[in-house]
Amino acid sequence: MKKLILIPFYLLTMVAALAQLNVTGQATLSVTPERTIITYSINETRDSYDEAIALMTKRIDALTASLTKIGFDKEEIKTANFNIRQNRKYRQGEPKGEEYVASQMLEIRFNHSTKRLLEVLNKTASDESAPSVSIAFGMSDEQEEKVKKQLMQMAVADAKSKAEVLAEATGYSIKGIKEINYGSSNSGPRPYAANMGMMKTFAESDMSNFEAKDLTISDQVFISYEIEK
Fold it and tell me: Which of 117, 136, 155 is the C-terminal boundary of a domain?
């Protein structure tokens, strides 16, 4: 008896894969800062733990008093750092006892105004507190959201423009978007771009002129386009 063997027939359909074009869209904006952040640093080094704390506290109290006199509430004066450490003293390479370093940092934030900034600097650089000062400029929350949205739109437009030029130059046309990547470690607006950072004891000189530079904020987006002949 003969067996009937059926061999199924498969129809193979070949689908040509679309080519892919990867583009980085970039955007940069210069914006005028709307927030000022001032950080005061006070340090006292003494042989006695209690003396180091007492002298630092006296200077902190004097600084706080100066800030409240020019309109800052105590709730607006934040302690950014507080530290007490013990160091070993040396003389000609030989240990000569211990000393204590007491450190405290105060931070204030306010809407940017050159007039207000100068007032704060000139009124808080007293001989009694004699703080070192660090100044940074940044964006308000509302400004940051607005700039972030604008940068994203600009970056996407830049990516599209680059993709169209590259596709046309190579004889392709854009079919669509395959993938969008945003939010890598190098992307996203930097809210406190360090265009103006400084450390200075303002007790030494009166500030009569101080202008904040614009912040340079950048962003990028990675887009993969599908292209075809």
Answer: 136
Say how many C-beta atoms besides its own lie within 10 A of residue 177's C-beta. 14
pLDDT in tens, 140-159: 999 999 999 999 999 999 99
Range of the domain at 126: 36-136
Give the global pTM.
0.68
- The residue from 105, 136, 167 where one domain ends is 136
